Amino acid sequence: MSPTNGLTIAVPRGALMKDTLQVLEDLGLDTSEVRQNDRKLLFEDVGIVTMRPSDVPTYVEAGAADIGITGKDVLVEQSEREVYELLDLGYGRCVMVVASVDGPDPAAEALRRLGVVRVATKYYKTAARHFEATGRQAEIVEVKGSVELAPLTGLSEAIVDLTATGTTLRENGLVIREELFTATARLIANPVAHKLKAQAIDDLVERLRAR
Fold this sequence. Notes:
By secondary structure, this protein is an alpha/beta fold. It folds into 2 domains: about 10-90 and about 185-210, D-Maltodextrin-Binding Protein, domain 2 (3-Layer(aba) Sandwich); about 95-185, Periplasmic binding protein-like II (D-Maltodextrin-Binding Protein, domain 2, 3-Layer(aba) Sandwich), CATH 3.40.190. It contains 10 helices and 11 strands. The longest helix is centred in the C-terminal third of the chain and has 13 residues, at about 200-210. The radius of gyration is 19 Å and the shape is elongated. The two termini are about 20 Å apart.
């Protein structure tokens, strides 16, 4: 039997890729071709397809991959996706936070004066849900690039973003005001594959747990 039991795995490029490939290698999968080829995305001979972490749930939900690995931040933001979260893999630890400029909190001041706070983020749904759940009115501004720039230029009073060490926030004069949740790499599965390939997926989960 192959190391992945014939399953197609969606692997995230970027920050989680190195550790993900190491995990697959620990299971006996030869990932050398993936490591050596930055441009190729589909590796049919080893059952790996690589993509942006935010695309992993899309491919898994659609059945283009049986299982996938992505960050909890992606799963929270895309909570509408019909995928099963099977396992916390423990690596890639980051924290989703609310941050604002150091000193008196501009976000709290905006809420006090105006009753609404502007929040810049790449995680629109996550931010909106958090402020709604905590009873605060927020105008969410979606940005794609460096979120830290938003409060420095007056675009927003606060940001919601993912941080591993807090270094980038500190370098830009921002401080963490709230922590929403901790995000680590998670193993997810397509619901149909989870039924039809239950033995293969269960076996893989057990081997991942035991590593």
